[in-house]
């Protein structure tokens, strides 16, 4: 390999020169537009070439300029899954502004908070009306207003350190944290020589939420290489289809899939990704066994494990997974990307020795400047590098180690932050939202289960008249579904240890008791119920299940529903869909649907 690493203790810095790489996104895209005339982005109805992408983006920039949106402003984008999303984002950058991607499927209160917290002065929506939003300080725009407008004569000048994007991540305060990413952050990441090489003839699947940092990889990987982005259904929707058939139909060759989803899919159908040239996974611990399942099938492409928090611009390490990795206890996260400094430090910020476990700290070209207009929180999480004058490091809160070969291993979280279905979640944020529900005196939220079966459980202290259903509905209106607890349970008091701290061990024991108590264990009455119940017991993180027990109360989610659907159809010769599992919610109702299907 043509890069050089220095390894001192548990510091790794990849020093490969990248002087010719663009340092801002506009320069990166302009080269692609000049070199490639093929389709840039498409869905089942619309296709936009790179030339049209550039033209439409210039009209968006004109619309912003004529709407008196000044360079340096932030502009929110809350548009559904449509090819026009890309020219909107590019047009915002051409106007010298930063984009704030907000998934329109998020709860309204969360979207409004993100708009206000990012100080957005304009908002692009699918309808252009903004009728759902209470905010009156933002100009609501529709990309169709730009049709027929004159083209921006030239892009607004941007500098590498100018703000390009704000992404929100879970925060312990009860509200998401706005992470700033500069042009240089994103350009350094996407042009990195240690990432998989994307070719102009590749087709990249866009399946991620636009609010999720994985979308940045999907979009800018194509924009850098001249590849095509194909807009597909969300991952949860794809799980209700024949994924392999959908990927073949759209000629997808490159895909980024959350680790937890990858693990689930591999347990059900190891041939799903056989036609891909490059499959990237990341977001949580990857199962070596499921990697082995992939390679044991007909997959002949390249598999990469990516690691990194949003604060380090999507990913900061990369590991080419080989079949030999399937024999390990855990799949490594590999070497740091070019220009990235990675240190493993102990509690006193001393460098850990080889194989010693410490906290992962990240610095270098892809390191975020911090949280938008929040100097105190930035200072809390971004520290001075004790080993490099003028350098900064982000304390990830992740446990890790470096082996004698210099390969980094991710060993889970050091604090209460957890991964739920591939999303980084701060249980205290969910806890704070529950505490704000009228009638709730106190609450505690913990994660139970392991790996793909990990769930949030909320314990609530309040009057007997307090409805758990009403609490759930309020939380669902404010938080995305992966942050909503799978179960709400009532307690007379939150248990504490002799030292006065919250007793999470007692809470986990109580969670197991509550789940067991909720299971009435109504027995099956026919052969179909017997078999479906057997499958539920094998896939859900609960031992005792009755045929009238609620799928969600038992810890079910869309990924488990996907596996239930595949198992039931394969083993019982039925034709149920994933949505049948999610809507029927009990073994008895699902058996009725299966029998009548």
Task: Report on the architecture of this protein.
The protein is an alpha/beta fold. The protein has four domains: 1-21 and 188-415, ANL, N-terminal domain (Rossmann fold), CATH 3.40.50; 25-158, Rossmann fold, CATH 3.40.50.980; 426-518, ANL, C-terminal domain (GMP Synthetase, Chain A, domain 3), CATH 3.30.300; 527-596, ACP-like (Non-ribosomal Peptide Synthetase Peptidyl Carrier Protein, Chain A, Orthogonal Bundle). 31% of the residues lie in helices and 23% in strands. The protein has 18 helices and 28 strands. Strands 1, 2, 18, 19, 21, 22 and 23 form a seven-stranded antiparallel beta sheet that branches. The chain has a five-stranded mixed beta sheet with strand order 13-14-15-16-17. Strands 4-3-12-11 form a four-stranded mixed beta sheet. The longest helix is centred in the first third of the chain and has 17 residues, at 50-66. It starts with a strand and ends with a helix. It comes from Nocardia tenerifensis.
């Amino acid at each position: 390999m043509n890069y050089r690493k220095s390894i001192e203790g548990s510091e790794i810095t990849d020093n490969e020169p990248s002087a010719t790489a663009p340092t801002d996104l506009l320069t990166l895209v302009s080269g692609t537009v000049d070199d490639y005339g093929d389709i840039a982005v498409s869905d089942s109805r619309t296709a936009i070439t790179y030339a049209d992408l550039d033209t439409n983006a210039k009209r968006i920039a004109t619309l912003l300029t004529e709407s008196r949106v000044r360079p340096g402003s932030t502009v929110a984008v809350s548009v559904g899954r449509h090819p026009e999303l890309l020219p909107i984002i590019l047009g915002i950058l051409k106007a010298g502004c930063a984009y704030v991607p907000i998934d329109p499927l998020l709860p309204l209160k969360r979207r409004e908070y993100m708009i206000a917290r990012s100080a957005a002065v304009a908002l692009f929506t699918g309808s252009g009306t903004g009728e759902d939003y209470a905010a009156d300080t933002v100009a609501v725009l529709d990309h169709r207003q730009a049709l027929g407008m004159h083209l921006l004569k030239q892009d607004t000048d941007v500098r590498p350190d100018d703000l390009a994007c704000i992404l929100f991540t879970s925060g312990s305060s009860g509200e998401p944290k706005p992470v700033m990413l500069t042009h240089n952050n994103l350009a350094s990441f996407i042009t990195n020589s240690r990432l998989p090489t994307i070719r102009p003839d590749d087709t990249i699947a866009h399946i991620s939420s636009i609010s999720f940092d994985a979308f940045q990889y999907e979009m800018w990987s194509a924009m850098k290489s001249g590849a095509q982005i194909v807009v597909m259904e969300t991952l949860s929707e794809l799980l209700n289809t024949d994924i392999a058939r959908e990927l073949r139909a759209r000629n997808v060759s490159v895909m980024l899939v959350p680790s937890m989803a990858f693990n689930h899919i591999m347990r059900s159908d190891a041939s799903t990704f056989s036609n891909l040239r490059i499959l990237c996974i990341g977001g949580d611990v990857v199962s070596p066994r499921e990697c082995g399942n992939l390679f044991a099938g007909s997959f002949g492409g390249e598999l990469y494990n990516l690691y990194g928090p949003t604060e380090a611009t999507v990913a900061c390490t990369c590991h080419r997974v080989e079949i030999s990795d399937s024999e390990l206890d855990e799949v490594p996260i590999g070497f740091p990307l070019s220009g990235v400094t990675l240190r493993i430090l102990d509690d006193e910020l001393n460098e850990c020795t080889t194989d010693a476990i410490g906290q992962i700290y990240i610095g270098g070209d892809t390191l975020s400047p911090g949280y938008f207009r929040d100097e105190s929180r930035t200072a809390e999480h971004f520290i001075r590098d004790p080993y490099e004058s003028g350098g900064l490091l982000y304390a990830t809160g992740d446990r890790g180690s470096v082996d004698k070969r210099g390969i980094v291993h991710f060993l889970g979280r050091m604090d209460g932050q957890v991964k739920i279905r591939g999303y980084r979640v701060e249980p205290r944020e969910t806890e704070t939202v529950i505490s704000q529900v009228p009638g709730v005196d106190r609450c505690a939220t913990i994660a139970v289960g392991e790996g793909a079966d990990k769930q949030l459980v909320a314990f609530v202290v309040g009057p007997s008249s307090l409805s758990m259903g009403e609490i759930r509905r309020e939380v669902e209106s404010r938080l995305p579904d992966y942050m909503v607890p799978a179960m709400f349970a009532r307690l007379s008091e939150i248990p504490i240890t002799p030292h006065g701290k919250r007793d999470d061990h007692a809470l986990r024991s109580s969670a197991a008791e509550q789940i067991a108590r909720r299971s009435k264990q109504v027995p099956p009455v026919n052969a179909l119920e017997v078999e479906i119940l057997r499958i539920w017991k094998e896939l859900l993180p609960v031992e005792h299940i009755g045929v009238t027990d609620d799928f969600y109360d038992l810890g079910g989610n869309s990924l488990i529903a996907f596996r239930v659907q595949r198992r039931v159809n394969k083993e019982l010769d039925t034709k149920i869909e994933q949505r049948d599992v999610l809507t029927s919610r009990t073994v008895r109702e699902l058996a009725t649907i299966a029998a009548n299907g």
